Amino acid sequence: MQRRRAYDFGPPPHLSVATSVSRARRDFTALHELGHHLQKNIVDLMEPFGRESDGGLLLEDAACDAFAAEILLPELLVRQYLDTKGPTASTVTQLWQASNASRMAVCVRAVQHLPTLGHILLLDATGHLAFAASHGLPPLRRGSFQGDIAVIDRALTGSGRAQGLTQVRYRDGILGRELHTDTAPMDGYLVAVLVTDSAPWRAFTPPTRDTGPQSRDYICANCDEEYRSFDPACQRCRIPPCPDCGRCSCPPRVPEHLCPGCFTMHPPAMFRAGSDRCLNCD
User: Fold this and answer.
1) Is 50 exceeded by the pLDDT of residue 1?
2) What is the C-alpha separation between 236 and 162, in angstroms, rounded?
3) Residue 88's closest CA among 198, 218, 6?
4) Buried b / exposed e along 31-54 (16+ C-beta atoms within 10 A)
5) Could you give the CA distance from residue 12 to residue 51 in angstroms, rounded to a whole number?
6) What is the average per-residue pLDDT within 72-87?
7) Which of 136, 131, 77, 100 is nearest to 23 (CA)?
8) DSSP secondary structure string for all residues of 139-187
9) Taking the model in full, what pTM does it have?
């Protein structure tokens, strides 16, 4: 039986990694979960995540992916395949073939080298999203079906290689902005590189037009203020952050306690055992 990957901050803390036929996938998952442990136990890492509207959920996952990928794929190897112009679908595949890392780790490293906003997608043979690494654009939901959109559809029904403009589909069915797209087969999967402009596989790429969703009015669940937002919605609660308190409608990811010294809510890692005051006040 397979177990879901998980990090339990304890005490004592422990990691759970699902059994898998792929050693590379297990390595990436274990390092990702170790990243969660470090983030929750190093005070200097807590503050940036706490300022995020969703409590740092998306940022922490992206940071843990990057932490794992950079250990598995050292920069010297990456530079041999991903030059200053940025990755193409073919060079992403070549980097994977030259390494012992998982496809996911390679996608994460490749998205760090995008010359502009975009995604690196890994799709299975049915067109469902197995993994996505994003830079500057709203993240895509794993498992979402992208197989019937332009370029991806041509690639899946053909040789696996296709180029052109396409729009990816988000959780609520809304198609995002048009993106320049390049695809290549990756041993049973399809890798796709999508960018807003400066496509590495073209001599000149004009910026694509933004066809994203428009603004809406919201009422903040935390401070009860009404606001209008053009920001991307949180992928969990579907509400963008409030401009006043910076929070969406998601509950805190870990239990928080009120410090009687500074009257601030802090996560458990900010308190010493047996003390009701935070590390700043104790």
Assistant:
1) no
2) 32
3) 198
4) bbbbbbbebbeeeebbeebbebbb
5) 27
6) 88
7) 100
8) PPPTT-B-TTSTTHHHHHHTTS-EEEEE--B-TTS-B---EEEEEEEET
9) 0.64
